[in-house]
Amino acid sequence: MWRFIGIRLLQAIPVILVVITVTFFLVRMAPGGPFDSEKPVTREVKAALEAQYKLDLPLYQQYFSYLGDLAHGDLGPSFKYSGRSVNELIAAGFPVTAELGLYALLVALGIGCLAGIAAALRPNTPQDYIPMSAAMIGICMPSFLLGPLLVLVFGIYLDWLPVSGWGDIPGDKILPSLTLGSAYAAYIARLSRAGMLEVLNQDYIRTARAKGLPQWQVVLKHSLRGGMIPVVAFLGPAFAGLLAGSFVVETIFQIPGLGRFYVQAAFNRDYTMILGTTVFLSVLIVLFNLLSDILAAWMNPRLRAQYGK
Amino acid sequence: MVTGIPENHIVRAIFEGLAVKNPYTLEPEPGVAESWDISEDGRIVTFHINPEAKWSNGDPMSAHDYVWSWQRLLSPAMGAEYNYMLFPVKNAKAFATGEITDFDQVGVKALDDLTLQVTLNERTPYFIQLMDHYSTFAVHRPTIEKFGKATDRYTPWTRVENIVSNGAFRLKTWALNRRIEVEKSDTYWDRDNVKLNGVVFYPTENVVSEERMFRVGQLHYTNSIPLGKIPLYREMENSPYVQAPYLGTYFFLLNTTRPPLDDVRVRKALSMAVDRETLNKTVLKGSNVPAYSITPPDTLGYYPPQLFGYDVARARELLAEAGYPDGQGWPGLELTYNTSEDHRKIAVALQQMWKDALNIEVTLTNQEWKVYLDSVTQMNFQIARRGWIGDYVDPNNFLDLYLTGGGNNNTGFSDARYDDMILHQAPQAATREERFDIFYRAETLLMEQMPIIPIYTYTSKHLIHPSVNGLPPNLMDSLNLKYVWLDRNWQPEQAGD
User: Fold this and answer.
1) Which of A16, A147, A165, B479 could disulfide-link to A172, CB 3.0 to 4.6 Å?
2) Shortest Cα distance from A175 to chain B (angstroms)?
3) Quick check: is B124 in a domain?
4) Is the pLDDT of residue B230 over 50?
5) Which chain B residues have a beta carbon less than 8 Å from that of A147?
């Protein structure tokens, strides 16, 4: 097992290097630079600004100097937020995004698993059709539509919940978590339904039923572990997706998370910030994929045997 | 270093210039300087600093603070985007471009601790106004030097725990992308007249979210309003919607170096075929004022010439003279705008108007902001959307855009007579009437060549909660938080509306 983890971590290094290199040169190729603005600055001013941020060096020198700093964990200064480092901005934004992602994941798991299991227990009945149709709608409905709809209903008509912010007003975390989680809830519902259906048709479940076990024991004790494997395999990519994809929800609800920094950085051509966030997120995605593989192995003895060698 | 309009509100809450603008009249009134004298020839301005003016750590403010801060602003290594604000000062430009390195030659002297003498290149009627622009504010030297060289940008001196400022408020919280809180400063010289205990600023890049926050009562004042919501708010009784003329013009740049726009007749035909009244009423929901020239009307009493109007017949004639009768032989034209729903609507309307009136095809291209900026600077376009917001109330701020080779010209327009009027004749004018007359003639010259198609004069649009007072609309959309107060006794007239 340890060997498996070690190999996976080693494999991650070239992946991340490629991400850095491609991002570094791609952002430089985009027209416009961090110091272009509607009121153009004079040549002298631009040169001075570029000198302050080492942009006057040849590109390959900038690249190696960036890699050198990165090896020390230093992501450099942000170009747009003067006086702030990228490390600091990520440290400010990430906990918020992570918290939002976690709640969204809990929402997704809670709603998704319940709906999926319920559907699997009585396939091809209304108990199956209703949650599965809802899931289909959930998958199709983008968060930039669902978010404002939820705001309209719960924030403005019913006046139950605040419509923006994060941790400022009690209850302001509910709507964003619901919005972000719902699309994943829909996926999870479909995955858990499929997984559970497969398991429920297995011989050992028939045996369990034959020996007269109550329904809840059959479901919780015998089928859940096997039936949830697809869901667990999906968790890693899902959480990574939640983190990287939360910017829409963050913009709708004015949440000061990493996603908003990321999008603003791209618009501002804040080179170091774009790179820093990309590197950070790619490391996270690699880690979460690994984590979900380990979890899946723990749940599935066949895989465990394979890795254990 | 700050360059944006929203940042402006925060900086002006925590810092104060030598002179500030009265939000009702826009006339300068005492800030850090309790008074100032201007010499007979207008070239020497002497500021008398208020002895009560203090930094938020209790240090007294002095004329030396300004000498040092302005040297910092003008230092080439600083790379300050707005350093040109001080270019009316003698030798300031030479110092900023590195021609001279001795700051003593620049026209800024501290005669004593409380007297600052500024020598200008020539009479500059708007110079006092510039003292209310954040780029000319003083910064606290010991604080900045504690964290690095004067010209370093990447230092933590602006952090809440470090910053020392001199405004009516001081920084209390700076939660990135979340909110900025300022609280009333107890060292501010005019603290007895500051009514608010504090202000919270929320960053919103999404006007729709902003409007929702206002609707549920999370905000007292919004920076803007979604266009589509305007009619709704207009119809309300006691509407919180406040709209006022704003010192800015929305227009299209024409690249006069490329055919077919190198022909002034084509440029005029395009401009005349735009029905600005209808555009404003329908697409813009009546939210702006149609414009026929670059300078907004009533800029300090100045009205620009109107040389043309909506005239399809004349436009068709001009186009025929240029060799495209009824659009025949039209080579096609590309209009570039930066990605935004509102810009797109206007571009589509123009495209249709030109099709209907002149029978010519114009294609639309949208570009992401920085790509668009790059295209405009490189003059890599035929028609491009543009807006200009004045930094100070004076026709000069709009007309000097079109000087030959100016950084914001971007049209290829060049006329030696025009340059002479703006650069030499206007500054030497003895009276305001004479000066405005020169501007008027220059602007006539400009619009005869039509290097731009003016569309509308901006308006400022805000939602303001009825309990808020002291936020008068004005041309600069300038808010002075010192004047603002909340009516505690305000009650909604109808509960639960």
Assistant:
1) A165
2) 14
3) yes
4) yes
5) none
